[in-house]
Design goal:
279 residues; Rossmann fold; six-stranded mixed sheet; binds NADP nicotinamide-adenine-dinucleotide phosphate
């Protein structure tokens, strides 16, 4: 019988996950189908129970349910628990177990451009949900330090305080981060600034950027934010949000099927949907 996989969120119509996963099921001859479901906050528990009752193989969870879903699951792995957010659920013998592949997906994408982050000095801009997943994941990889800069500095301090992994970190304002920029090997932009339709904005000026730095922006619409264009002009290497999106999906697919999929094909598929070229 055909297995059901899904993504739940609100809104959900824009999600590129169905096209990406359905293409993989067909590539690997797996008799399964992946569907998007719009689920309102008040219906979340009923939706999770319904998916369990019909024997769903697994599903992704997106905004606004990544944290709220936790009490309705049967278990959660350590990283997802520490992050406080789930983006992938696996049906393990009738029990729905939550994982977070956002942070590990970002790290895997990063590894396509640099061999290791051990010893690197890192700046994360933003202190929201995505920053939290990335910060906790990178904190386990022995960087020299990871500082967090955010519009609301208290949120950056709270994030640092809540990290269970030992890492040297400071909380900064966006202006302070601009002034310290020459200290960093790797800069990761995780705020909403620069996202379509407000594409002319960037969260900080890159005047003090080191030419050898790698600058990432986890936004993928547009494919090259103002921030990445500026970094490229200053001679730095850049990475956009496609890699994180593709690798979080690849890790979810691996958890559901045991197969680590063809990420180049996934990337091309997403780029076709977005109608652009990679950077
Ligand atoms: P979130 O939890 O709402 O966090 C938003 C962050 O943006 C906060 O740090 C917030 O600062 C900051 N921010 C918002 N408006 C700002 C403004 N006008 N000026 C300065 N800072 C501002 O969002 P999220 O879930 O972390 O998502 C963040 C971004 O990551 C989105 O663009 C999302 O599409 C992208 N994302 C990409 C992937 C991927 O696979 N590539 C995965 C997840 C998310 P305050 O704390 O001061 O409010």
């Amino acid at each position: 019988m055909k297995k059901l996989f899904a993504v739940i969120g609100d809104p959900i119509a824009h999600s590129m996950s169905p096209v990406m996963h359905n293409d993989l099921f067909s590539l690997y001859n797996i008799d399964a189908h992946y569907l998007p479901f719009q689920v309102k906050n008040d219906d979340l528990q009923a939706a999770v129970n319904g998916l369990r009752a019909i024997g769903v193989g697994g599903f992704n969870v997106t905004v606004p349910h990544k944290s709220n879903i936790i009490p309705f699951l049967d278990g959660i792995d350590e990283l997802a628990e520490n992050i406080g957010a789930v983006n992938t659920v696996v049906n393990e013998g009738g029990k729905l177990i939550g994982y977070n592949t956002d942070g590990p997906g970002f790290l895997k994408g990063l590894m396509t451009q640099i061999p290791t982050i051990e010893g690197k000095k890192i700046l994360v801009i933003g202190a929201g949900g995505a920053a939290r997943a990335i910060y906790f994941t990178l904190a386990k990889e022995n960087p020299r330090g990871i500082d967090i800069a955010n519009r609301t500095v208290d949120k950056a301090s709270d994030l640092i305080q809540s990290c269970p992994y030992p890492v040297v970190s400071n909380a900064y304002s966006l202006l302070e981060a601009e002034n310290h920029l020459a200290d960093y090997d790797l800069i990761i932009q995780t705020t909403l600034i620069g996202m379509s339709p407000k594409t002319a904005e960037q969260p900080i000026e890159l005047t003090n950027l080191m030419q050898q730095a790698l600058v990432c922006d986890i936004i993928y619409n547009p494919l090259e934010t103002q921030f990445l264009q500026d970094a490229k002009r200053k001679g730095a290497s850049i990475q956009n949000g496609i890699d994180m999106f593709v690798f979080q999906g690849a890790l979810a697919f691996e958890k559901w099927t045991g197969i680590f999929p063809d990420v180049i094909r996934m990337r091309d598929n997403i780029l076709t949907q977005l109608g652009g070229n990679s950077c």
